[in-house]
Amino acid sequence: MPLSSLDLASPSQVIAAFEAGASANLSAQCRRGSIDHIRGPGQLIATGDLHDHPVNFRAIVRLAGMEGQPDAGTAGPHATFHELIHSDKLIDGMDMSYRVLCRVAALKAAFPERVHALLANHEIAQVHGQGVSKNGVNCVKAFNAGVEYVFGSEAARVDEAIRGFIASMPLALRCTPSAGGRDVLCAHSLPGSDALDRFDPSVLERALTDGDFTPRLGSAHLMVWGRGQSDQELQTLADRWGVGLFLLGHESAPEGVARLGTRALIVNSDHDRGVCCRVGLERELSQSDALAQIVPLGTVLGEAW
């Protein structure tokens, strides 16, 4: 369903969009266990946390060429989306970011091989009812209040569809360059220094289990909540996974992008200086290569969308 015709106040349309997105997440040819895996040549629009920033979302959709008709193939750029929900712009204390999550589900259904909606800590927190806050607001409660306000007696069914879509999301996107060399791994984050002894690196090579979501113990939970990795820890994971560069979110980058060690970039797409990284998938990428391909999202639209 094109985004322009999606009625975000219709429970039937919203539920259908989430269910179609979940089905596409699990059945796409790029899905390999807990991750998506693509190969060059081609182009990737790698984003960071979005937190329901509407202008930047529209800019990403335009850069990825996904404003038009659905395409079941792989022609056109790939795009990652993560940390979609829990906006800091509330309406009477309610968070309406289910809407951007629904739009991404519809995009996944329309472009199943090109859209990669990655698991992040806020989505996991929402599904499992874990405490997560921004600016003193309980994000899970504010999100639930928004769904209940819009959908009333149908809110439970909408919530079930939201849970199904989030549960279907891949943990990462792995990009293999067509000319050889190490891969790029896009993920919300990586396990922190205090979690590596509990983290199972084979999580990228198998399907996720319920235990992977156990707070502070499960490998999916540890991966999306980690911060402050040392360069040596990044190198250890890079060697284990055959990765040359990590493109991550989760941490703050006031200028839109920041280096993390020598093998990772932190990308933010959720504020007015937000960016994406538009990179080719033909050859191995260094951190400097990726930095040279940063696009400020505020420069993309140029006119009403």
Can you put this structure into words, describing what you see?
The protein has helices at 11-27, 54-63, 98-110, 121-128, 139-151, 155-168, 219-225, 231-241, 287-291; strands at 31-32, 35-39, 43-46, 78-82, 115-118, 133-134, 137-138, 172-176, 183-187, 243-248, 257-260, 264-267, 275-280, 294-296. The chain is an alpha/beta fold and 305 residues long. The chain has a single domain (9-299), classed as Metallo-dependent phosphatases (Purple Acid Phosphatase, chain A, domain 2), CATH 3.60.21.10. Helix 2 (54-63) links the parallel strand 3 (43-46) and strand 4. Helix 1 (11-27) packs parallel to helix 6, helix 4 crosses helix 6 (155-168) and helix 5 (139-151) crosses helix 6. It starts with 10 loop residues before the first helix and ends in a 9-residue tail after the last strand.
Task: Characterize this entry briefly.
With 305 residues, the chain is an alpha/beta fold. It has helices at residues 11-27, 54-63, 98-110, 121-128, 139-151, 155-168, 219-225, 231-241, 287-291; strands spanning 31-32, 35-39, 43-46, 78-82, 115-118, 133-134, 137-138, 172-176, 183-187, 243-248, 257-260, 264-267, 275-280, 294-296.
Looking at this protein, list some descriptive labels.
alpha/beta, five-stranded mixed beta sheet, 32% helix, 19% strand, 305 residues, seven-stranded mixed beta sheet, single chain, Purple Acid Phosphatase, chain A, domain 2
Biggest β-sheet: strands ordered side by side in the sheet: 1-2-8-9-10-12-11
Helix fraction by DSSP (H/I, runs of at least 4): 25-40%
Order of helices and strands: HEEEHEHEHEEHHEEHHEEEEHE
Oligomeric grouping of the chains: single chain
Query: What is the strand tally?
Result: 14
